[in-house]
Amino acid sequence: MELDILKRINQAREKRQAIVVLTHLASGLTEIVEEGEAVAGELASSVETAFRSGRSGLCQTETGEVFLNVHLPPPRIVAIGAVHITQVLARLAPMLSFDLTIVDPRTAFATPERFAGVDLIADWPEDVLAKTPLDAHTALAAVTHDPKIDDAALAQALRRNCFYVGALGSRKTHAKRVERLRHMGLAEEEIGRIKAPIGLDIGASTPEEIALAIMAEIVQSFRLRALPGRSA
């Protein structure tokens, strides 16, 4: 691999930027496409599929085969709330290749005993996210039911264009949340991206079932996410 290509891959990894390296096998020509960058011709569909699936592979074109080598940032979940639901998410997320961080300032809940081996931060979300900003390859799930903890994280997730933003609570609870977010300066279109009630509608009632519904909705949102410059 050419040194400049390798350097560009490393830069993308550091910036959590998604790229596809295209290698035209007949000529040996190599080029890099960033997520959202326009691609002309018959390669466009294959490149978009590669970004959504994360799978590398061959594409047949009129001028010969092209190998698509996909480099995606590891998708991650930031869960606001060290609760029973996130105890289950902590088991599900690694199985589906998602990194997980749990944030909760309530030290009675955010304990190593309850979340052994989990990236757990007992601090206020706004302070944590100021040091490690959210991005387009991050899902945010707010499950504390406490506006003082959830709202600031939801606002940042919307402003940072997280691919998934979900919040626990009934429709009545969410209506009040919408009003608070409006007062925080969020636009209707931004607020409308919040999945609330959180999770796919599977009739979930237990923490285990709710966590499963959330995880399924996150996977669905990631695989069908809107790429920059395109609609989902």
Write a brief caption for the model.
The chain contains eight helices and nine strands.
Question: What does this entry look like structurally?
Answer:
The strands form 2 sheets. The chain has a 5-stranded parallel beta sheet with strand order 7-6-5-8-9, sandwiched between helices. The protein is built from 8 helices and 9 strands. 38% of the residues lie in helices and 20% in strands. The mean pLDDT is 94. It folds into 2 domains: 69 residues, no CATH class; 148 residues, Rossmann fold. It is elongated. Strand 1 and strand 2 form a beta hairpin. With 232 residues, the chain is of the alpha/beta class.
Q: Rg from C-alpha positions?
A: 20 Å
Task: Count the domains.
Answer: 2
Strand order of the largest sheet: 7-6-5-8-9
Poorly predicted spans: none
CATH superfamily of the largest domain: NAD(P)-binding Rossmann-like Domain
Distance between the termini: 33 Å
Largest sheet, if any? 5 strands, parallel
Q: Summarize the amount of helix as a percent range.
A: 25-40%
CATH topology of the largest domain: Rossmann fold
Q: What pattern of helices and strands is seen along the backbone?
A: HEEHEEEHEEHEHEHHH
Mean pLDDT, to the nearest integer, reads 94
Structural class: alpha/beta
**Overall geometry:** elongated
Number of strands: 9
Q: Number of helical runs?
A: 8
CATH architecture of the largest domain: 3-Layer(aba) Sandwich
Itemize the secondary structure elements and their pairings.
Blueprint lengths: L2 H12 L4 E6 L5 E5 L8 H11 L3 E5 L2 E8 L4 E5 L3 H12 L3 E5 L15 E3 L3 H7 L6 E5 L4 H13 L4 E4 L3 H13 L4 H4 L15 H17 L9
